[in-house]
Design brief:
Blueprint lengths: L7 H11 L9 E5 L4 H12 L3 E3 L2 E6 L2 E10 L3 E4 L1 H7 L3 H22 L13 E5 L7 H11 L5 E8 L4 H5 L5 E6 L19 H13 L8
Parallel strand pairs: 1-2, 1-6, 6-7, 7-8
Antiparallel strand pairs: 3-4, 4-5
Helix pairs in contact: 1-2, 2-7
Length: about 220
Amino acid sequence: MHRRFADRADAGRALADQLKHYAQRDDVVVLGLPRGGVPVAYEVACALGAPLDVLVVRKLGVPWQCELAMGAIASGDALYVDEELMRETGVSQPEFDRVLADEKAQLARREALFCDPRRASVDVTGRVAIIVDDGLATGASMKVAARALRARAPAKIVAALPVAPHDAAGRIGDDVDEYVCVTAPELFFSVSQFYSDFSETTDDDVRAILARASSASGPASSG
């Protein structure tokens, strides 16, 4: 029987338990993928005593099936394209280019929204960077997040997830240095099936979580 989480906070605490070897180290940072990954990442950062930041990514959805990712983009012009899926779904280059343009605009909007001039972004250079999301389906978001992060020269990149398909580690491949997942079912249809409460995380929720994390002298448990 695979683990089912009450909500994202519960998932974050379960994930933090798998990352205890990184607790109370000054060379560890936690980065949540907005929006749903941020409340999970907050719990991880609190438990580990690590600073929290966001790494903005946008999924490039197939035009007629937007939840199916044919790629993803991230801060710093990182791009991942699943060319095999594009061929299988018959997405043309002009169709792809339109989705890419739309998502680049959304990425820029999110970056501006989550960038508070009063809150310095976390420096990952030479540090262990733990990328957290609320789950993984295709792997596109995690792959592009890792590629964007690699350009910032961390010592190590860890992909950390509450739930992902049993073969997800292979999909991520060598884009990350370590892969941690709480539960990895063989029967996987969507991330939401493993949460009792998978209600939407809003932009305001993300901003509030980031403000809460940065206002503390050091991350403390949210209980």
